[in-house]
From TrEMBL:
Stretch list, region Disordered: 296-320
Top EC category: transferase
Name this polypeptide is given: histidine kinase
InterPro entries: HATPase_C_sf, HATPase_dom, Sensor_HK_TwoCompSys, Sig_transdc_His_kin_sub3_dim/P
A Pfam family annotated for this UniProt entry: HATPase_c
Domain Histidine kinase/HSP90-like ATPase stretches: 357-442
EC number, as in UniProt: 2.7.13.3
Native source species: Phycicoccus endophyticus
Record keywords, A-Z: ATP-binding, Kinase, Membrane, Nucleotide-binding, Phosphoprotein, Transferase, Transmembrane, Transmembrane helix, Two-component regulatory system
Length: 463
């Protein structure tokens, strides 16, 4: 395959050869017909005004007036399809120019027909969809036009007419009158045809750039809408996870405390009172947590002038774990809690989102123990290695309770929370009996703020 020279390659690229974009081709509309009619009217009026002035060249034409009118009208009619069939109209305009120029040069030289030819050639470059074919046709038109001009000077009467007009005229400038007239004619035609081609190319590039900008704007709008939808879905998922944790945990605690109160209400009033107090506390905590979630839903619509609802209370964190563990302790089950810090005060320096995730993960693990295990001892350990990781481990000594198959949403919530912090998850039965939930989170300083959440690793069964 022959490679084009660099200059030809750049020229073809400027005209859009090889560009995948195709300019939409509009149908012939009322504006096109109206434009052609106005140009035709101006052309005919101008032609008759020239005739009325007494132009001898026009009067000496061997063609009747109606044929002259036909030449003007047919040229103006080409403008009707200049956008629908741009390359064909450009070729027809070039043929019209040569035919009328040879037979009726004074008619071809009228201002309106010159505008028609210019606009037709410009539209051929600006509206053509097949850029390679356009370049071939327009190049052929330009070559033919300049060959015709050259023939007019070489073998036609154009040069002789200049000699007759300027015979005996003294030389006033750098060149003699005849060479100067020839060069001026060539320069005018270069500007005429070159201007039509360049302006058409600029119009095509401008239309392409506008189309690309519109496409990019549509893409950005679609991506923005997708991101908004994704954000709404993620927020709904977070709220659903919070509701599951809150409702499942507190309802399980209430059920256990109610069962314990029922068993001892006749023989141990004090234990019954403590169980009922636990039920009361769990119900209040559930209502408070649900109000906080409702506040989250309403916070985006709250006015900024301070007249809206008050900010919701802080989400539970590490400091609330002792209360959570104590609420899960029953006469038949002991739940222990240990906080191991690499340095004093590390729990206070743990970021609130991570502390909240640790609290909710422990809550979900204890809820699973209450609903699905026969455990009598449960150990909750939180280890904080400041600058390295935060780890929680919930271990029990029980076996799966018969007839208590779970939905798996609890473990799914644990894994999703771990994924938000790029944590790893280990869930499953222990070799020596019992069940373990272990989650390790990187310390927040070690996680890039813009890193995408990674799926956590998880092993073990379903509870």
């Amino acid at each position: 395959m022959t490679r084009l020279p660099p200059a030809a390659t750049r020229l073809a690229g400027w005209f859009g050869v090889g560009d995948p974009w195709e300019r939409p081709r509009p149908a012939v509309g009322r504006a096109d017909v109206l434009t052609a009619a106005v140009v035709e009217l101006i052309g005919l009026v101008g032609l008759e005004l020239v005739r009325s002035i007494g132009n001898e060249t026009l009067q000496d034409l061997p063609f009747p007036w109606w044929l002259q009118w036909l030449a003007v009208s047919s040229g103006a009619a080409l403008l009707v399809g200049r956008r629908r069939w741009p390359v064909a109209v450009a070729a027809l305009a070039a043929g019209h120019m040569i035919l009328v120029g040879v037979t009726m040069p004074v008619v071809m030289g009228q201002f309106t027909l010159q505008v028609v030819y210019f606009v037709a050639l410009m539209s051929g470059v600006a509206w053509a969809r097949d850029r390679r074919w356009m370049l071939v046709v327009v190049g052929f038109i330009v070559v033919v036009m300049f060959a015709w001009i050259a023939l007019q000077f070489a073998v036609g009467s154009a040069l002789q007419g200049l000699v007759d007009d300027y015979a005996g005229t003294p030389r006033h400038g750098v060149l003699a009158p005849v060479p100067a007239a020839v060069l001026l004619t060539v320069l005018v035609n270069v500007l005429y045809f070159g201007g039509a081609v360049v302006i058409g190319g600029l119009q095509w590039r401008s239309a392409r750039d506008r189309a690309l900008l519109a496409r990019q704007a549509a893409t950005i709008s679609a991506q923005t809408e997708a991101l908004r939808t994704r954000a709404v879905a993620e927020e709904r998922l977070r709220i659903a996870r919070e509701l599951h944790d809150v409702v499942a945990h507190h309802v399980s605690v209430i059920g256990i405390q109610a069962a314990a109160a029922r068993r001892v209400m006749d023989r141990d009033p004090a234990a019954t009172r403590r169980a009922l107090e636990g039920i009361e506390g769990s119900s209040r905590a559930a209502v408070s947590s649900m109000r906080g979630l409702l506040g989250t839903l309403r916070s985006s619509d709250a006015p900024q002038d301070g007249t809206g609802p008050r900010p919701r209370s802080p989400q539970p964190g590490l400091e609330d774990l002792p209360v959570l563990v104590e609420a899960c302790s029953t006469p038949g089950r002991r739940v222990g809690y240990d906080l191991v810090e690499s340095s004093p005060g590390a729990a206070g320096r743990c970021s609130p989102p991570l502390a909240h995730s640790i609290h909710r993960t422990v809550q979900e693990a204890l809820t699973n123990v209450e609903k699905h295990s026969t455990a009598t001892r449960v150990s909750v350990v939180v280890r904080l290695e400041e600058g390295r990781f935060a780890e929680l481990e919930v271990v029990d000594d029980g076996r799966p309770r018969a007839g208590s198959s779970g939905s798996g949403l609890g473990q799914l919530g644990i894994r999703e929370r771990a994924a938000l912090h790029r944590g790893s998850v280990e869930i499953g039965p222990r070799a020596g009996g019992g069940y373990r939930v272990r989650v390790r989170y990187p310390w927040p300083d070690d996680v890039a703020a813009d890193a995408a959440p990674a799926a956590p690793t998880a092993v073990g069964g379903r509870r």
